[in-house]
Design goal:
355 residues; 2 domains; alpha+beta; 28% strand; 5 helices; 9-stranded antiparallel beta sheet; Rieske Iron-sulfur Protein; Naphthalene 1,2-dioxygenase Alpha Subunit, Chain A, domain 1; globular
Length: 355
């Protein structure tokens, strides 16, 4: 399926955001405030119609919908009696609460109360709206105002590349642990032996990893093929596979793999922190080769790899991603992990940070 790139940004409040964690937040309050500043995906573009859908991000309950073509994201709670607006419906550009029929416009203000059509509407009848963007086949939002840079995935809009959007994956683990696993190169032979790697080839050549203004950059070259096991015959015997990892803090990472004959595969690992220890993973993929092949094979291969990762990440202890160097031991292959953790520390997150 091909997705038309759309970018819609809305911040109807036009006032500074002062986000506060929900009462049932599983994050440390200061960590939550830092994490809330960034952009995260909460749904697929294809799922968003004029029917509201519920989502959850950083323990905040959200409602997302289209109102006359505009993407809207808001707190999923009517200001009148606290009923989830995701149970309601959309009329024109308004969302309607199913309990008493109150209608809220895209600026969050109540525009109509059926039981008092000519009465005064209190300024308190206003729902909290969040900025929204539609990119890479996904709906993104930021609870803290959306002022941080948006994650980049340039090949998605490149006409030479095929756009692939596999189903999301729910992981009972922290987003930080998942992202760190995605950039880990020493686990290939042990976790992905059934899909593409070789347990008899566990060696990790030296590679460089560095912190960047937005996260981490690492380039890794080895002879471990990225073709599925059933397609390993397509890999030249002496081919050196170049993998480039980039992290945009806190939980978005990309991997670009150079395939033989000029092929390029790019994967966006967009880990959305539902709660401190619950993650919904979205994985947009692009490639400039094999574009005539069935997409189901890509979905199946991608799912198998991330299920292999999920099975391990969900067992890790501590659950949190430790930013204190003394909490866990380290090996030479952990250069990318070390750069990522140091970058996370510079955000001001706690040393025993939970997410």
């Amino acid at each position: 399926m091909s997705y038309v790139p759309i970018s819609i940004v809305t911040n109807p409040q036009q006032t500074p955001f002062h986000p506060t964690p929900p009462r049932d937040s599983t994050f440390h309050p200061e960590d939550w405030k830092i994490l809330s500043k960034f952009w995260y995906p909460i749904a697929f573009s294809s799922d968003l119609t004029d029917k509201p859908i519920a989502a959850r991000l950083l323990d905040e309950r959200l409602v997302a919908y289209r109102a006359e073509g505009r993407v809207v994201v808001a707190k999923d709670m009517c200001a009148h009696r606290g009923v989830p607006l995701s149970l309601g419906w959309v009329e024109g550009e308004n969302i309607v609460c199913p309990y008493h029929g109150l209608r809220y416009g895209p600026d969050g203000k109540c525009r109509h109360i059926p039981s008092q059509p000519d009465g005064h509407i209190s300024d308190r009848l206003k729902i909290c709206m969040y900025p929204a963007q539609e990119r890479y086949g996904l709906i993104w939002t930021s609870l803290g105002g959306g002022h941080e840079p948006f994650p980049e995935f340039p090949t998605w809009d490149n006409p030479d590349f095929q756009q692939i959007l596999p189903p999301s994956i729910d992981i009972a683990a922290s987003a930080g642990r998942q992202v760190e696993g995605f950039i880990d190169v020493a686990h290939f032979a042990w976790i992905h032996e059934a899909t593409f790697a070789d347990r008899n080839n566990p060696f990790v050549p030296q590679y460089a990893a560095e912190r960047t203004a937005r996260g981490m950059h690492a380039e890794y070259i080895s002879n471990v093929s990225n073709f599925p096991k059933r397609m390993q015959h397509r890999a030249p015997a002496d081919y050196q596979w170049r993998r480039v990892f980039n992290i945009e803090l806190p939980f978005t990472a990309s991997l670009t793999v150079d395939f033989p004959e000029g092929g390029v595969l790019s994967i966006l690992n967009a880990a959305s922190p539902v709660s401190a220890r619950s993650t919904r993973l979205f994985v947009p993929i692009t490639r400039n080769f094999d574009k005539d092949q069935p997409l189901q094979e890509v979905y199946d291969f991608n799912r198998q790899i991330f299920e292999e990762d999920r099975a391990i990440v969900e067992t890790q202890r501590p659950d949190d991603l430790p930013l204190d160097k003394g909490i866990e031991a380290h090996i030479l292959a952990d250069r990318s992990s070390g750069a990522y953790r140091r970058s996370m520390s510079l955000l001001g997150l706690g040393a025993a940070y939970s997410a």
